[in-house]
Specification:
Blueprint lengths: L14 E2 L3 E9 L1 H4 L10 E7 L19 H8 L1 H4 L1 H7 L5 E8 L5 E3 L3 H8 L6 E8 L4 E6 L5 H9 L3 H4 E5 L5 E4 L5 E3 L3 E8 L5 E4 L15 H5 L21 E6 L4 E14 L7 E14 L2 E6 L3 E4 L5 E14 L2
């Protein structure tokens, strides 16, 4: 069904937000040097590009809505901003979280609980996510899934013997690689990898191994050994990277799941995308190059490392430039 006439949002435009930067023990300088973020230290590990997480809610950085919190945008514009089906399901909660992550050191070996467990324990969504490798040093790795199927008892035996790394599958990665990480899957981002992460709105992580490191005060980060046991999906083994062709000026699907759909757009010149049948907001993350997005007479320029929200009420966008974009929406 085509969208009806614009209701509350009279003059929609491509919306940018101010990144929420987070210092991490494993963070580095790629967010500053590769994506040109205005980092406040040399170990910023995460740039939360678009967030509805309490305490870290994104603020509009451009146009007539500049200075407005994302949650207030949803309260004011409702389905015009996020889509009728999305608003009906999630209300004033923005359902996805968009990040860039710089791993100057290995992240902890970890996993995330599913919706049912997260709701029961934390009153939260679970955390299904996907990774797109924006940049990677030579021989850098991601850790994704177990190397084979284990029972809970087998896992505990190896864990208690300090052999957890022997169980985890690692894969060497390069720029442009894509992985889909379902809840219950053991995983970690390896040293030297810069990724774009798209995930459910959740900040739940069960950390099971942190490379025996400590902070400046000699204190180790908390592990969640017991919580993780019931969250594991031991069938998730050797998660393979997702294949795609990177064709010019067409949407190539990378991930489709119940939480989000992600396509890759390789823009060369001028590309028009019809959105009238998409009952959802659309987010574009620029992972390479630069260009502009036009809605009606509203033109917003973007560069590598920027993230743009297109309101659900918009029927068509025109994208110009030479750029690679991740296109995300909820089906």
């Amino acid at each position: 069904m085509l969208k009806m006439k614009i209701a509350k949002m009279k003059n929609p435009y491509p919306i940018k937000f101010s990144p929420v930067l987070k210092e991490k023990i494993w963070g580095g300088e790629k967010l500053k040097n590769v994506l040109h973020k205005n980092c406040f230290s040399n170990n910023v590990g995460e740039s939360w590009e678009l967030s509805g997480v309490n305490g870290d809610i994104s603020v509009v950085s451009n146009g007539a809505l500049k200075g407005t919190l994302l949650k207030n945008l949803i309260e004011d514009f409702k389905e015009d901003l996020v889509g009728s089906a999305v608003y009906k399901k999630f209300g004033n909660t923005f359902p996805l979280l968009f990040k860039f992550i710089d791993a100057n050191d290995d992240l902890s070996i970890q996993l995330h609980p599913n919706d049912e467990l997260a709701q029961k324990r934390h009153n939260s969504f679970g955390k299904t996510e996907m990774w797109y490798v924006v940049d990677a040093d030579k021989q850098s790795k991601l850790y994704v899934g177990f190397d084979k199927q284990y029972t809970k008892d087998q896992y505990l035996s190896k864990f208690n013997n300090g052999e957890i790394l022997e169980m985890v599958n690692d894969v060497e990665v390069a720029k442009g690689d894509v992985f889909f990480i379902e809840t219950g899957t053991v995983h970690a981002i390896g040293k030297g990898v810069l990724i774009a992460e798209i995930q459910q709105t959740s900040d739940l992580t069960y950390r099971i191994f942190d490379w025996n490191r400590t902070d400046d005060n000699g204190i180790s980060r908390e592990l969640h050994t017991d919580l993780a046991l019931d969250a594991f999906d031991f069938s998730k083994t050797q998660i393979e990277k997702i294949s795609y062709q990177n064709k010019s000026n067409q949407a190539e699907n990378l991930v489709t799941c119940e939480y989000f759909t992600t396509n890759k757009l390789n823009i060369k010149g001028n590309f028009k995308k019809e959105l009238s049948k998409c009952d959802s907001f659309v987010v574009y993350m620029c992972v390479e190059g630069s260009g502009s997005i036009t809605i009606g007479t509203n033109i917003t320029e973007f560069v590598k490392g920027e993230t743009i929200l297109i309101p659900a009420i918009v029927n068509e966008v025109e994208i110009k430039g030479s750029a690679e974009l991740l296109e995300v929406y909820i089906d």
